[in-house]
Amino acid sequence: MPVNIEGIREFARLAREPSELVRHARGNIGLWLTLIAVAAAAVFMLMSGTKFAVGAATLFAIWAILAVSLNLVVGYTGLLSVGHVGFFGIGAYTMAVLTSEAPYEQLRTGVIPTFGWPFFAVLPLCIVLAGLAALIVGVVFNRFRDDIFVLVSFGFAIIAYSVFLNLRSVTRGAFGIHEIVRPQIGAWTFDGNVAFLLLALVFLGFVMLISWFITTSSFGRVLTAIREDEQAIEVFGYQATHFKLAVWVISAMMAGLAGGLFASWTRFIDPNSFILLESVLLVSIVILGGLASIWGSLLGAMAFVLLEEGMRFLPFIPTEYTGQARQVVLGILLVLLMLFRPQGLVGRFRL
Amino acid sequence: MTANNEALALETDSISKHFGAVRAVDELSLSIPRQGTTSIVGPNGSGKSTLVNLLSGVLPLDGGMVIIDGAGLRVVHAHETPAHGLTRTFQEVRLFDQITVWDNIMVVLTERKLFPSLLERVRPANRRKAQDILESVGMWEKRESMAMELSYGQRKLLEIGRAMAMDVQTYLFDEPFAGLFPQMLERVKDIMKQMRADGYTIVFVSHNMDIVRELSDRIIVLDSGTLLAAGDVEPVLGSEEVIEAYLGA
Asked: Do residue A228 and residue B107 have CB atoms under 8 angstroms apart?
């Protein structure tokens, strides 16, 4: 469900009868976690000022698109992919290469042509190229499952990073690509951070809507059956490989969209944004939020961004260590969560 | 193929399956007529479950041909068997554990093609059918539970219900009675008797000779992956070689 309507209803009911609150506190963990996350976000905004908060919210929207899309593959279909960052990167590099007009020349590559296309012309290409890559990769990946699938998706993440780093005549290697354009409609540019945030949220809503449409359809039910027992669902007349390939491509297209948004938002990308660690963090978000729950993925992404950005403001960690400390804290949280709540914050399922 | 294959639901033409040096099924040829109940019996390791897995495409054939409903198949694709009018249950119950009882039935009732399935929600006809099935196996009250939360007997029943929802001609039940309490056992027996009366073809694997005698119209006895005997129940079970295979060696 895209919106936790039950939770909101419950909240309204509880507000009328405060005595019920304590009794329900244990029962509806999802509701309370949501409230905590929203409260934390509000405190965070007050502490950090709106400009920073808007940036964090944009980051949240992009991570949430990624998490919702990966949840289709990991949570619903049961394919534990750590290669999602590859499709994210393809989207980002498509946006960067085709929109940037920053000149670049080196001995080994010569002058690289620039295109300077507008954002909205390139964004569909980000989606299509990520989808095409997923189609090619997916035909091969369809042969694997379970732990072997994790390994081959790991391989894909490594290969994608290596291509971003070394295909210098396209990606400019470690130098990165500057001056990626912001979205523009006519004369009006989404230059302001709030405008871009709104755009990102619109796309997030769009992705959630599609995910909801998929997961509530018969197609979505087949995906969950594939997750539970792929061979058994074949006996009942479904060609599991087709369904897996379809959801894999759809998910990659959403990641490509997130990549395009990300490149345009940061205005500069280099291969370091697309390392394997990002994929692992993304899988953590999906598991932390709750498998096979769109709402859980949102919550996971929100918790992650709050944690990552919020820790900058913790007084007892020197600023030069916050980057590493974030990963340590996230790692510890994940271990604790798997110990005490293996189905994630709001999920019902286990891997 | 024999001349009277119209009357045959299932046929195998010297099919084989080897696991390393073990010949689980060894050039086995048999035929199962349409309608009525056929039981497959044999000592442990005689290839009963392997045979069911070969017929349903869960295991690939090493050789030979399976003929389902007149269609000769050298490669049996599991996802194509329902189109030939075949479905099955598994020896170790294989439900979709982390989805609801309701969805376990609904998932076999819905659209098989990719794009139509994306557009399909719950059809009223399917909803009625799922309700009928769940009521007939006594699982309607449990419809919101996860399949994994059911008891062993309930899981067996739900799996049989899932197969019934397929509404095909031929049903392969792999050990449908194993490990059931008497009450559940009677229930499964009643379901199978009803299906037989309704004109379906039922093939089941069992170790329980009392049930085999009670339910079977015909019997197939396997030993070491080969056909030991086949035919009417009492003559086959009374024959010396069958008694020897069970009691001797």
From this structure: no
